[in-house]
Specification:
heterotrimer; A mainly alpha (288); B alpha/beta (446); C mainly alpha (302); A: 288 residues; MetI-like fold; two-stranded antiparallel ribbon; 73% helix; C: 302 residues; mainly alpha
Chain lengths: 288, 446, 302
Amino acid sequence: MARRNANATALSERLSPFQKVYLWLVAGFILGPFIPLIIQSFAFRWAWPDLLPSTWWLEQREKSVLPLSWDYVISPYSQVWEATLNTVFIGCAVTVICLIICLPAARVLARESFRGKPAFEFFLSMPLIVPEAAIGIALLMIFIQIGLAGTYTGIIIVHLIPTIPYMIRMLTAVYQGLGRDFEEQAMILGASRWQILRMVTLPMLLPGVVAGALFTFLVSTNIFLLTFFMGQGKIITLPTLLFSKIAGGTLDASAAGITLVVTVPGIILLVVTERFIKEEAFGKGFGN
Amino acid sequence: MKKTLLTLSLLGGLVTSASYAQDVEAFRDAVTSGSATWEEIQARAKEEGEINLYYWGGSDQINIWMDRFAAPGLEAEGVKLNPVRITGTKDAVDLVLAELGSGKGLGEGSVDAIWVNGENFATLKRQNALFGAFADKLPNSANIEWNADDPRALLNLRDFGVETNASEMPWSGQQYVCSVNTARVAKEDIPSTFADLKGYLEANPGKFAYVKPPHFIGNTFVQAAIYAHNPDGNGAVPFQNSIDDLGAAELARLITPGMEYLKELDGLLLGASGSGARYPEDPSALNGLFLNGEIDFSCQFGLYGVAIGLRDGTYPEGAEQFIFPEGNMIKNKNYLVIPANAPNPAAALVMANYMASVEAQASKLEVAGMPPGIDPWRLSEEDVAKLTAASPGFVGITQQELDANTAPDTNATLVDVIEATWLEYIERKSTDPIDVIVERAVANLN
Amino acid sequence: MGDSAPNELARLRRERRLMLLQLLPVVLVLTVLFGGALVLGVMQSLGFAPWFGVNTFPDFSYFGVLWSQASFWQSLWLTLYYAVAATILSLILGILLALALVRTFPSKTLYKYLYKLPLMIPYTVGIALAVIMLGNGGMLSRLMAFAGLIDDPAQFPQILKTHMGWGIIAVYVWKQTPFVALTIYAVLLGVGRETEEAAAILGANKRQIFFLVTLPQILPGIISSTLIIFAFNIGAFEAPFILGGGFPDTLPVVAWRYFNDADYTLQLQGMATVVSIALIAGGILYSYLAIYRRYERRIGRQ
């Protein structure tokens, strides 16, 4: 103990002064820009160099014929609600399909070794390193021909490409952590395959599966380019809606409001994942 | 649920597609030959039930108008309007052409109508992707001048110099107008010619920018500069010819002074003193620069742009319109076109007819600030009064001044060439002479 | 033994079949969609596009034209510059953050929520934040005007819409620092602090502990997060499109412009651009991995 104390400077449990400042800076970098964004969403006219809007939305609200800022954002005209529903629907569908096709594969990858396994694993992570633009544009041509462009099915199918690698990695990590002993013991005790799956494997897998599902959902809801190509403007999600609002590189009040709305599902997801995904599980998926 | 519907309709489509195509073909022929009665069209439209209108969704006001006025208006006719907001009109044109290319012919596409003009219409026409002559055969076609002997009918008969043959319905008539922030610029400093503008920028470098071509708002500024610098001094006149009539060498000669001017201007524009001129990508970016006082003048299509911009806070309080460039304020129309493979052609016709009604035109003018596309001299006095009452109004200019400084648009076949030349000569700073660049652009586009 | 051999073989075969069956869905989906897209993309870039009435396969002229343009190489340089700069910055900032996160400090629970926020929201939000903060008419510019440092938006140092790409890099770093931090933090939690403590007891100083003990432990995490963010950065479209400095654009934006050109045959040129990006990204990532594997072998891991 005495030796450890002697080396307290080399291996402290507490933050160094630099780290304290650093954490504050990072927090400011991440959250700071949201302050002007919130102000902008309530502004009517906010020109340089004013630090606060010269006219606020509420002052003009009664006078205006058309809905302004938040009135526009929450109205059906902004399509925010439609985009949110689409985003969630597509995210759920992608997650479920991804889970179904990845679970068996992850089990094999975690437990069996076979010839060419490293190459196969590399193949599985390929979608992570090939640009989305390449996949999206090439598929778009075919999807238009077979009538899948501009449909939910088309979008869900393309979303599988970038989500499968993440799902496989996280599920494989879960299976690896699970070990084989429990299933074997259950088998010795006379349980059937189905019973083993239902009573032993699934309950033990569940936390990892939830983590993988949440992460897949997250990835799917964040995809822009593939959705933009396949949606053909007919199916909009939160990222594509926001893109069309800010593509010119300026932000008016309704664009600021929409940006804030697009952030909300992320915050909800953040709270949920923090409860369900253990950092270690995430690390197993990506730390190697 | 939507998916199962889709699958069902796909399956159904396979079974009936042959007879369906014949049915649509018969309907198209009846419409374009004028033998279909309006009642037949309406009945068929009710059967089809919906219409997919693809339009540029970058304006909150237009979006609101579509949902709040156009959709209920069409609901009353038994047709459900599906307004599809796109970021670029070309996306919809691409979709139509891709579908046609993959064998989705009559009645089998997914686009019923597109808000277009200029190059996009010319592309559809060149690729034989138009439904046909419908715009002069609907009840509200009476609101539009179709008589070729009347010079005022020009913009209904020609879209950027390309004959429309009534295959698109005039929807809105626009003019290219510039605005000034009077809080920043003294009255006597407001330019009225391109030379004035350059003079102002030499005194106040960086205080102007125009939208980057190939965006049509940027193209139009370039065209106005080219008209004003026409070496023959006859402005827009030679630019009404197609590239085949004019020839590359002649076009190069005509645009050289204008391009030289724009090149000189490039060094005086926003950001030019730093890392190089910064051209905003679209009108909303331009508005942002104007509001923040980064630029003193802002040019775009929008007769009522300032009135609307003051109403929604996107323009600075001191914004006013002014006449610039004298004699070369480009005027054109935009249209609703029905593509050849529209899945709901009758509903599209009902939509086009509704859009040409005085009611729709008046509410569109009032809510979205989009000028009427129908012609006032074809309307009753009462209807004209309705439109006048709906107008958001000019700020700082009058209709007489606008009319006195009007210029026509450039022929669509020249627009691509001029655009390519701008990109090469100004943006990419090519050192090749303009006639070489034009020659290359013409060769590439054929 | 002699009797059970055929049974054993049959069992093995059955298990093998079962294994293949379980791998089949993923293999099928990825091969058809992803592999199919790749093959199709390459074929299009070589002149196969019967739907435009173009079929000159195999035709290398699209690559020839593309690679002979000076602007292609400028674009490539810009693409790599943004991707590399953002990746390195995110790595450094992320590792520093992870090292701070393993310490105990008040309100750590809250902080662990906070720092992950950018991970959860689309890049487009980051772009909107960059516009409102860093633009010439943005918040920083206004604060400088408030402080009396500038009296015109044009005097504010250009951050967005320049080829230095500060705005693009800022968005990438904003979004990816948390990703790196999370990955490294998870690895750090996994390995525990025993070896670090042992090193400390043996008298190593802070620097020695970091470079000789901690860094090798987190290296696999660094490698995999680098691969992922670099690959994303090189293919990203939104940020350079909205915040970039115009011509010359990054390669994904160049491809986009080709696809949106009035001239339809340019779409094949666009496909050649996209395939070039994929080839370059693949090449860089492959050599990066190869170097790392060699390093791993040298230090005797695996």
